[in-house]
Amino acid sequence: MFTKPTLTHIDAEKGTLDVPSPQIADLSNNEKKVEHIDVFPVLSLKKDAPFAPSDVAKAPPAPAKPAKKKVPLWVLWVVWFNCYRRFFTVIFIVNFTGLGFAIAGKWAYAAKYPGALALGNLNVAILVRNEIFGRFLYWFVNTFFAKWTPLWFRLACTSTLQHLGGIHSGCAISGVAWLVLMVVHQFKTKYIFNDSILAFGVITAVTLFITICAALPWVRNTHHNVFERSHRFFGWTALVMTWVYTILTNAYDTADGKFDHIGAYVVRQQSFWYTVGMSIFIVLPWLCTRRVKVDIELPSPKVAVLRFERGMQQGLLARISHSAVMEYHAFGIISEGTHAKHHYLICGVQGDFTKSLVNNPPTKIWTRQLKFAGVSNTSTLYKRGIRICTGTGLGAALSTCIQSPDWYLIWIGSDQEKTFGPTISGLIHKYIGPERLLLWDSKARGGRPPTMKILKEVYDSWQAEVVFITSNYVGNAEIQQGCKEAGIPAFGTLWDF
C-alpha cells in the first residue's frame, strides 16, 4: 500500500545479478535455440576505429584497478537529496506545520475536521502508487512533451515521475499523524463519544502505524516476506477499520448520544467520499489480476527467462507471484513491441521465489494484466539516450533499445551469452546493431570496465541527452555520482528511503 519492491529480491529496475556463469554446453546443442547466435563484438570507443570480431577475439589483460576517487561532498549531497527526498520534505513540513497550528488552536478547520486531512493525505498516498494513475501520468507526459520541449523540462518530468514515492511516503506519514490528532481530540472529550468510536479510532491508527513500520527500509531490505505480508494485510485491515471508524463517527450524534445520523447524512460527509476514493484506488489494480500461461527457459542455473503471450510497449514492468495475493515480485519486461507475440522477463535466481522457478518451473503464474510504468517509459521524451545496465538489469533496459534506434545499450556482465541464453542473445543480435551496442563480458575481459570512461566517451560520440542506469546498489551510486560530477543528466535505480 505504501511502498515499492524491495532491495533483497530481484527488482524490475535493479540489476542485481553479476555472478560468474557455470560452464554450459555449446548453444548449438540447445533444443530451444531460435536462431544462430554470433559472438557480440564490443564497439570500439574510438571514433572511426576499424570494427571487427577479431577486436575481441582475445581477452585483454585485466584493467588495472584505479585508486578510488574521493567524491566531492556537493555531489554526494545532490545525489542523496534527490526529488524523492525533496517531495517528502515539503509534504512533511507543510503537514506538520499545519498540525502545529491545529494543536495551538490557530487553524479552525483543521481542529474541526482532522479526519478529512487524514483521509485526504492517505488518498494521495495511495493514488500515486496506483498503476492506472501512473500509466495515465506517463502517457500524458510522453504524448504532449516528447522531444520538442526544453531538455531541462523533460528531465524534470522524468525526475517527478520517478520520485512519486516521496509524495507517497510523505502523505502516508502525514495522514497517520492527522488521524492520531483526531483520536486524541476525541479522547480529550470522551464523555461525549461512544466507546466503540474511541476503540475503532485506536485500532485504525495502530493498524496504519504498523503498515508504515512494515515499509521501513530495514524491514523491506532484510525481511521481505515480513514486509510484504504485514504491509499488505495490515493495509487492507486498516482500510476496513477506516470504513467502520468513518461510518461510526459520522452516524453518531454527540447531542443525544445516539447513532441516528444514518443513510443520507453519512453519505453527504466528505470523509465518506474520501474513504470511497481510497477504496477504489486500492481495489482497481487487483481487478486486473489473472493466472496466465508461462513458458520458462533455463539457460543456466543462475537465470530463468519467462515467456508470456502478447507484446508490450517499452518501459513497463510486471508483477508476478505463485499466489493471487501473496509475494508479488517486479521485473522489467522485454518485448519487441506491441505487435509481438510474446514478452519476456529475466529472473535472476537469488531468493526463494526465483529459486522455485528453476527447481519447480510452473506452467501458469499470477500476474497483473495491467503493467505499471518504470522510468524507462519516459525514454520517448528524449532525442537520444544511453541505457547502461549490469547483470539482470538488462531486463529493464533491453526493450527501450530494441524498440527505439535512438538508444544506445551498454551491458556489463559475466559470461553473458551462456548465462542468459539464446533467446535474450537473439533479441540483442536481431534488433541492436553494433553501432549502438557495447557488451562488456567481465569474465572474458578479465575484470570490470572503466565504467565512467566508457560512459563519457559514448555519451559524447552518441550525442545523448540522458543516461538511464540499472545496476546494483553500489554500481548505481558510483555511476550516478560520476555522472553528476561530469555534468551528465542521469537517472538511476531507486530504493525507497
Automatic annotation (TrEMBL):
The chain crosses the membrane at residues 87-109, 136-153, 165-185, 197-219, 231-252, 272-289. InterPro entries: Adenylate-forming_domain. The keyword Transmembrane helix applies. The keyword Amino-acid biosynthesis does not apply. Keywords: Membrane, Transmembrane, Transmembrane helix. This is Non-ribosomal peptide synthetase. It comes from Rhizopogon vinicolor AM-OR11-026.
